[in-house]
Amino acid sequence: MDHILLIDTSAETGTVALATGGKVVSQRSSSDSRNFAAIINGLIDQVLAEENIKASDLSAIAVCGGPGSYTGLRIGLSTAKGLCYALDKPLMMHNRLFLLVAQQYYKNLLKYDNYTAILPARDKEFFITTYNNKLQAVQEPTHAFEADIQPILAETAGTIFVTGSQNPYLESLSADGRIHVEPNDILDIHSWAHYAFQQLDCNGFVNLANSEPFYLKDVYTHNSNKTNTLNK
User: Fold this and answer.
1) Which residue from 1, 11, 2, 69 is spatially nearest to 188, judged by alpha carbons?
2) Alpha-carbon distance 84 to 210, whole Å?
3) What distance in Å separates the CA atoms of residue 213 and residue 57, rounded to the nearest whole number?
4) Predicted confidence (pLDDT) per residue in 107-143, tens digit
């Protein structure tokens, strides 16, 4: 039986979960974001002990690579990498935008032609991604200025389900009759576990040495005329 440890410290509430056979069997969460670095290893020990699983029994470790809190992302990724190096396990790193899209896709399937996730970056700046109803990328996870969002969506044919953080701008997008807006920026750990096991089956691992969090870099902060695709 395969076991995957899932780690998400990209938001205010951090979560560690153990999934077995595609289902979450143990989970711990904490809203003490200032102390993620101090408590994350304890949370991992708890979920493993609860199911009497040793760290060496894990098949892989999956981490949410952002976008999100700069410090939180680095804590989560460094913890996941440290475990992978020590245990000789593969690493999976999943983009938060994609995970938000996937959890809505799993609920609605072919009801919409496309699924978009939008999260705030800074004032009038966002992260955006769009996938079609085959979970194929239409727009890779990208940093975009507010003025770029509607042109990006206008180029997407068919109906669009938009999810992400609740804010007036996101809700204003529903003025386009093709777009259904349903804000939700909370990761569904069960959907993530389902996706992680799909990736385990097809060796969807990342390079352990070169993987880095998904966040804004200085090179992307001074161009207001076009979008910029960030490396995962």
Assistant:
1) 11
2) 13
3) 26
4) 999 999 999 999 999 889 999 999 999 999 999 999 9
